[in-house]
Amino acid sequence: MHKTIAEHPSLADKFNKDEERVNWHDQTLWWVRAKRDKAAHTLPEWEDLRNLASQIKHNVLSNLSEYLVQFEENALKNNIQVHWAADAQEHNAIVKSILQKHGVAQIVKSKSMLTEECHLNDYLQKEGIEVIDTDLGERIVQLAQEPPSHIVLPCIHKKKEEIGELFHLHLGTPAGNADPQFLTAAARLHLREKFLTRKIAITGVNFAVAETGEFVVCTNEGNADMGAHLADVHIACMGIEKLIPERHHLGVFLRLLARSATGQPITTYSSHFKKPRQGQEMHLVLVDNGRSRQLGREDFRNSLKCIRCGACMNTCPVYRRSGGHSYHNAIAGPIGSILAPNLDMKDYADLPFASTLCGSCSNVCPVKIDIHNQLYKWRQVLVQQGYAPAAKKAAMQGMAFTFSHPAFYRMAGKTGKWFMKTTPFVVNNSFNPWYKQRDMPEPPKESFHDWYKKNRKQNE
Amino acid sequence: MNSREKILQAVKQNQPEPVSLPHIPFFTPPFTNLEQKFTKVLQSIGGEVHRVSSYAEINQILKKEFGSKTIFSSAQELAELMDTGLDYKNAHAFADLELAVVEANLAVAENSAIWVTEAMVQERALPFIAQHLALIIQPQNLVATMHEAYARIADADYGFATFIAGPSKTADIEQSLVLGAHGPKSLLVFLLDREIA
Ligand code: SF4
User: Fold this and answer.
1) Which InterPro entries match (chain B) (predicted)?
2) Are the C-beta atoms of B62 and B71 separated by less than 8 Å?
3) C-beta atoms surrounding A460 within 10 Å
4) Distance between CA atoms of B63 and B192, rounded to whole angstroms?
5) CA separation, residue B158 to residues A183, A212, A300 (Å)
6) Beta bridge partners of A332
7) Which of A21, A139, A240, B38 is the most exposed place for a label (fewest CB within 10 A)?
8) Domain residues of chain B, as ranges?
9) What is the DSSP annotation of B103-129?
10) Any idea where the domains of chain A sit in the sequence?
11) Cα separations in angstroms, A420 against A356, A413, A442
C-alpha cells in the first residue's frame, strides 16, 4: 500500500504563494553558493581535489565489502560496539534496544540526515522516548514540528520573526524579540541543560576510516561533542557509504566539505572519535537501507559518493525557488532526487523531474557526481517502469508520439505556435507545469523545420 | 542469515570492479608565510591571535581579560591562574568553567585549525564546555595544509582528537553569524616562540 504523497509541483506551488519569501530564499542560498565559489577559488588545486575525492570514493565503492569488514574489525579493537542494520526499521530498533538496556527515555541528538531518513524521531516518540535535536537549526524545525528543509541549513526557509515566535512559545523568550544573537543565547542555555542531564547522545558520522576504526563528526556549533562527551553512552549512526580507506584521505575530504557547504575554510570542529572515553559506552550502527541496491545500479552508483555538503541544493534554480519541503524527502534538492527513487520509485517518481537539468549541481559537487545526468537517467527509468508522475506522463506520452511521427510533429509544432500566438491563455495556465512562475517564451516566427527547408533550398 | 551477512553479501554482489587508490600529493600552497596565513584566517573566522614571547606574557593577558574567574590550564607555567576548587575528574564540573587554556602542538595555516588530542585536555568535554577557550601553539608547529597535518598524525594513537578552528558558531537564524552556539564564545590563540629553558 502506498500513501498518497503530494507531488513536487503542487508542494512548490504552496511555497510559491509568498513571492517575497521565495525571492529571499533564492537570494540567501545564492549568497551561500557565492561564498562557496570564493572559497574554491582560493585553492589552485580545487579541481584536482575534486578528482581525487571522486577517485577515492570510487575505490571505496569498488571495495566496500572489504572496507566494511576492515572497519568493523578495527572499531571492535577500539572498544566500539558495532551493529548492522539492513533497513530503517532495524536501525530504529537497534537504537531503541540500547536506550532500553540503559532504561533511558530522554536523549540528545546532533544533526544526522541518516536518522531523518529513518524517521527515528517519530519512531522513538511513539515509544515514549523524548529526543532533543541540538543543532540550532534542527531544534528550531523540531519546535515547529517540521522536518529540516536543507541538509546543512535545516531552517533556511524560516524568518527570524517566526523563530522568535517559536522561542517565545516554547522557551519563554519575550514576545516580539527576533534578534539572532539573543535567540541563539536563549537556545544555548536551553540546550546546555539538556546536554548536562541526558545520559545518551546520538550523533551522525561524516566519515569513518577503515584503516583505524575511527569516525569523524564535523560541526560548527560543537553540539555533537557536547552531547557525546557528557553522555554515558554515545550512539553514532552512519550509512555504509561513509567509509574512507585511510586516515590521511580525510585531508582531501575536509578540505572540500566546508568550503563546498558554506565557504568556510573548515568546520569549527572536526572531531575524531576512536575509542570510548573511560567508563563510556560507544556504539556504531552501520545502515544499509537501500544503499547496497543503489550500488548495483550502475547509472546511479555514483550518488553514493555524496558527502552531504549541500552545494548542489544551494546552486539549484529549482530548489532555491521551490523550497526544501517540496521534495517531501529527508534529503531535498538534486542529490535527494537521485537517492529518493532508489528508496521508493512510486512515491518519489516526481523528484527527478524537479530539475532544469542545467548541470549547475554537477559543476559544484566536490566529489564530481554527474548529478544532472543521473536525474535524466532516472526520468527514463521511471517512465519505462510506468512510475512517471501523472502530469508528466501525459505530456511525455504526447511527446513520444509526436517524436515518433514526424508528420504529426510538424503539424503539432505549427498548431502549438498558432495556439501560443492566438490564445496564449491556453498555454499560460496552471495545467502547463512549465508556466509556474514564468511566462512562456514567445513562439518563434517560423519553425526550425520550415527554416531548414527554405535555407537548404537557397543553398542548393 | 543475519543483517551483517545480508548487507555484506549484497554489497559484494553489487560493487563494481576494483579501482585502485589515487596518490595524494601535498600541493604547493599559494602562500609562504605560514604564521601570517594562519593569523589572517583565524581572524576572519572570529578568533583572536596574540603573538607572545613568554608564558609570563600570556599570564598577563589572561589575568587582564579573565581576572579571578574560573580557569583551567594544561600549562604548568600558568598554574597560578588555575582554579583549584574544581573537581577535575568530572566533566560536568566544567559547566561553570569560564576559560580553558590548552597547549597544542599542531596547527594548519590554510584553515587555522588546531589539533587538540585527548592527552592535552583533562576531559574530552573541556574545550567544548568552557565559556571561552585559549590555545597555545608554537609557530614552528604550523603546517601549510591538511595533507601535511595528516602526514604528521598518520599513525598517531588517540581515543579522541579534534581540529578546532575558531569559536563555536552558528548561522542558523537567517544566516546571521553568532559566536558561541553551545561551546566557547571566543577563541584566543597564543603564538608562542619556543622558550629557552
Ligand atoms: S551531491 Fe555533491 S554537491 Fe550535492 S550534497 Fe552531495 S557532495 Fe554535495
Assistant:
1) FTHF_cligase-like_sf, LUD_dom, NagB/RpiA_transferase-like
2) yes
3) 5
4) 17
5) 37, 11, 37
6) none
7) A21
8) 31-192
9) E-S-EETTTTEEEEEGGGSSSTTHHHH
10) 1-37+316-388, 43-289, 400-456
11) 22, 10, 8
Q: Tell me which of A33, A255, A335 to substitute to probe ligand 1's pocket, judged by most ligand atoms within 8 Å of the beta carbon.
A: A335
HEC per residue, A349-395: CCHHHCCCCCCHHHHHCCCCCCHHHHHHHHHHHHHHCCCCCHHHHHH
Yes or no: say if B89 and B72 are a contact pair by the CB < 8 Å rule. no
Q: What is the largest CA-CA distance in chain B?
A: 65
Please provide the distance, in angstroms rounded to a whole number, between the alpha carbons at the two ends of chain A: 62
Which residue from A315, A312, A341, A311 is spatially nearest to A328, judged by alpha carbons? A341
CA distance B112 to A284: 30
Question: How far does the CA of residue A443 sit from the closest CA of chain B (Å)?
Answer: 41
Check A265 against B112: CB less than 8 A apart. Answer: yes
| DSSP code for B158 | -
Q: What dotted CATH number matches A43-289?
A: 3.40.50.10420
Q: What's this model's pTM, rounded to 2 decimal places?
A: 0.90
Q: A interface mutation test: which of B1, B2, B4, B7 has the most A CBs within 10 A?
A: B7
Shortest Cα–Cα distance, B42 to chain A (Å): 10
**Residue A335 Cα: closest atom of ligand 1:** 1
ipTM above 0.95, yes or no: yes
Locate cell 506522463: which residue?
A393
The string of pLDDT tens digits covering residues A70-94 is: 999 999 999 999 999 999 999 999 9
Report the CATH fold assignment for B31-192.
Rossmann fold (3.40.50)
